[in-house]
Design goal:
Hypothetical Protein Yqey, Chain: A, domain1; Arc Repressor Mutant, subunit A
Length: 151
């Protein structure tokens, strides 16, 4: 379970005095706690599930990539490097990513399974894709592939 991995990683990083990992894992745990509290307010006492946690981690990575491009354009290479280090730490908790040709093949197979034919089926297809490949695929890129296949 990802929550256990995060707790273990925090303990190991604290023993090793790995400041970047400590800070990043604490950021993840704080974001996770905030989302858990929001879920409890909606009547879900268990908080976020595994797929939701994976989506949270992917969101954190995407935010850091956007920050890197802004820092680099602003000449703040030191901050861009810090964001890059955080991405490396966050990626430790994600399953291997499906990219490139493997992603296209997986999407083609899912489009066939869902019997999707037109762009009207895109929402249903993306929903099935997110359910099946949660945390293992960049859905912004996948969306473009799905759109190409359904047009």
């Amino acid at each position: 379970m990802i929550r256990d991995q995060l707790s273990d990683a925090l303990k190991i990083a604290m023993k090793a005095r790995d400041e970047r990992t400590i800070l990043t894992v604490r950021l993840i745990l704080a974001a996770l706690k905030d989302r858990d509290i929001a879920q409890r307010g909606k009547g879900n006492p268990d908080g976020l599930g595994e797929s939701d946690i994976l989506q949270l981690l992917n969101t954190m990575i995407r935010q850091r990539r956007e920050s890197i491009s802004q820092y680099e354009s602003g000449g703040r290479i030191d901050l861009a490097e810090r964001e890059g280090e955080e991405i490396v730490v966050i990626q430790r908790f994600l399953p291997p990513q499906i990219e490139g040709e493997d992603m296209v093949k997986a999407i083609q197979a899912l489009v066939g399974e869902e019997n999707a034919k037109t762009i009207k089926d895109m929402g249903r297809t993306m929903s099935a894709l997110k359910e099946k490949y949660a945390g293992r695929m960049d859905f912004a890129k996948a969306s473009g592939v799905v759109k190409e296949l359904l047009v």
